[in-house]
Design a protein that fits this description.
This is GMP synthase [glutamine-hydrolyzing]. Its EC number is 6.3.5.2. GO terms for molecular function: ATP binding; GMP synthase activity. Helix 1 crosses helix 10, helix 2 packs across helix 10 and helix 4 packs antiparallel against helix 5. The protein has 2 domains: 191 residues, Rossmann fold (3-Layer(aba) Sandwich); 102 residues, GMP Synthetase, Chain A, domain 3 (2-Layer Sandwich), CATH 3.30.300. The protein is of the alpha/beta class and 321 residues long. Helices cover 45% and strands 20% of the residues. Strands 3-2-1-4-5 form a 5-stranded parallel beta sheet, with helices on both faces. Strands 6, 7, 8 and 9 form a 4-stranded mixed beta sheet that branches.
C-alpha cells in the first residue's frame, strides 16, 4: 500500500537518476503543491534546485516576506523577486475578470523568464523546469474551470518551457492533494505551509471587483488579515476549506460620530468543501462574525460595511470573479 515514506524514497531515487548533475529552476507560489514539489527535488538534488518566488503585489498581507522566510528555513535556494510595480502598471484600468487573469498570467511569465534567463546565463547546467502539478491538474478538464484553466497553468508555470527550452520535471503528478500533504509532512515542510487554504494564482487580483489599484490592494490586505487572523484565533481556520475577503465596487452610507460616511463594503467568504468543485458556505459562529466585522470597520480606513456570503457552489462559485 502507498506510504509517504516509500513514495519519498522511490521518487528521490528516480529524480536523481533523471536529473543527474543537471540543475532545475522552479517557480514557487507559497502554496502546498509547489512547496512540496520543491522540497522533494531539494531532497534529491540539493542546491542544484534554484527556486524563484515572485511578489506580484496580489498576495496576502506580509505573505511574501513570511513565505520567503519559511523557504529559507527549509534550506531552499530561493530568489525573491519584487515585481509589484510591474504588475500594478500592467493591470491599471483593467476590470474584466478574465482580462485581469490574462495580464497576471502574462506578466508572471515575463518576470519568471527574465529571472530564469539571468540564472541560465550564470549557470549553464540549468536544463529543467520543476513544476508542482498534481493529479487533479493533469486530469482537470477545461469545462471545470472555464477560462481560469489558463491561470491554473500559470499557477503551474505552464507555457514557460517552450520559450526557455527546458525539460519539465513534475514529481507530484500522480498524487492527490491529501497525499501531497502527507509527503510534505514526511519531508518536514512547515505546518504553516501544509495547512494553508487554497489561494488562487491571480490572488487578490480576483478578489478586488473592478480595477486594481495599490490602494485597494492595501485596504483588502488589512481586512483580509483581520479575518484570517481571527479564524486562527477562534480555532476555525482548519475547519474551513478556504476563506477570503472580497472588496466590492459598492459604496454605501454609514455614520461615524455625527458625520455621514460613504465608503466601501467587503464580503467575507468561507466554504466547506472536499475538492473545491462543490462547496457549502461555512456556518461560522455569529460571535466570530461580529468580532471580525467590528474589527474591520473600526480599523480599516475606507470600509464601513461587512457582509457574509451565504451562497453555495453550484450555482455560485467560491471566488467572486
Ligand atoms: P471557483 O471560484 O471556480 O474556485 O469556485 C474553485 C477553486 O479554484 C480556485 N481558483 C483559481 N485558482 N487560478 C487558480 O490558480 C484561478 O484563476 C482560479 N480561479 C479560482 C479558487 O480559489 C477555489 O479554490
Amino acid at each position: 500500500s502507498w506510504t509517504p515514506a516509500a513514495f519519498v524514497e522511490e521518487t528521490v531515487e528516480e529524480l536523481k537518476a533523471q536529473l543527474g548533475g543537471d540543475h532545475v529552476i522552479m517557480g514557487l507560489s507559497g502554496g502546498v503543491d509547489s512547496t512540496v514539489a520543491a522540497s522533494l527535488l531539494h531532497e534529491a538534488i540539493g542546491d542544484n534546485l534554484i527556486c524563484i518566488f515572485v511578489d506580484n503585489g496580489l498576495l496576502r498581507k506580509d505573505e511574501f516576506e513570511e513565505v520567503l522566510h519559511s523557504y529559507k528555513d527549509m534550506g531552499l535556494r530561493v530568489v525573491g523577486v519584487d515585481a509589484k510595480a510591474q504588475f500594478y502598471r500592467e493591470l491599471a484600468g483593467i476590470s474584466d475578470p478574465e482580462g485581469k487573469r490574462k495580464v497576471i498570467g502574462r506578466v508572471f511569465i515575463e518576470v519568471f523568464e527574465q529571472e530564469a534567463k539571468k540564472l541560465e546565463a550564470e549557470d549553464r547546467a540549468i536544463k529543467w523546469l520543476g513544476q508542482g502539478t498534481i493529479y487533479p491538474d493533469v486530469i482537470e478538464s477545461v469545462s471545470v474551470h472555464g477560462p481560469s484553466v489558463t491561470i491554473k497553468s500559470h499557477h503551474n508555470v505552464g507555457g514557460l518551457p517552450e520559450k526557455l527550452d527546458l525539460r519539465i520535471t513534475e514529481p507530484l503528478r500522480m498524487l492527490f492533494k491529501d497525499e501531497v500533504r502527507k509527503v510534505g509532512a514526511e519531508l518536514n515542510v512547515p505546518k504553516n505551509i501544509l495547512g494553508r487554504h487554497p489561494f488562487p494564482g491571480p490572488g487578490l487580483g480576483i478578489r478586488i471587483l473592478g480595477d486594481i489599484t495599490p490602494e485597494k490592494v492595501a485596504m483588502l490586505q488589512e481586512a483580509d488579515a483581520i479575518y484570517i487572523n481571527n479564524l486562527r484565533k477562534f480555532g476555525l481556520y482548519d475547519q474551513v476549506w478556504q476563506a477570503g475577503t472580497i472588496l466590492l465596487p459598492v459604496q454605501s452610507v454609514g455614520v461615524m460620530g455625527d458625520e455621514r460616511t460613504y465608503e466601501k463594503t467587503v464580503a467575507l467568504r468561507a466554504v466547506d468543501s472536499r475538492d473545491g468543485m462543490t462547496a457549502e458556505w461555512s456556518r461560522l459562529p455569529h460571535d466570530f462574525l461580529a468580532t471580525v466585522s467590528s474589527e474591520i470597520i473600526n480599523n480599516v480606513k475606507g470600509i464601513n460595511r461587512v457582509v457574509y456570503d451565504i451562497s453555495t457552489k453550484p450555482p455560485s462559485t467560491i471566488e467572486w470573479e
